[in-house]
Amino acid sequence: MSGEAPSAQERETAALMQRFNDVFQRHDPAALAELVAEDCVIENTQPAPDGARHVGRGACVALWTRIATAPGTGFDVEDVVVVRDRAIILWRYRWGADGQSSVRGVNLMRGRDGRIVEALGNVKGA
Q: 8-123 belongs to which CATH class?
């Protein structure tokens, strides 16, 4: 690490990703419409092997709303690394109480003008 202070762009990206992660921690998708750019693209983790592609604010907000509000589920954010307009979010998605009812993954995210424009999701496979 260079030890340099984060740039204004990195502070903006970090704040955007914090607001995004809060949606899933709180199970409250209300903020998504303001966080997602009109031309946002998501490459989802499923179905294998390539995942589904979701294009546009409406499609992206709809997908993330379903994930954020799924009963009995939750995300543990393990780490967030920000470099300029990009973020790497390491997470564990849980759908049950035991360790077997979870999967670890990573989102490669990109922001622009305070909104998410790209999210590429990947999970550890069997």
A: alpha beta
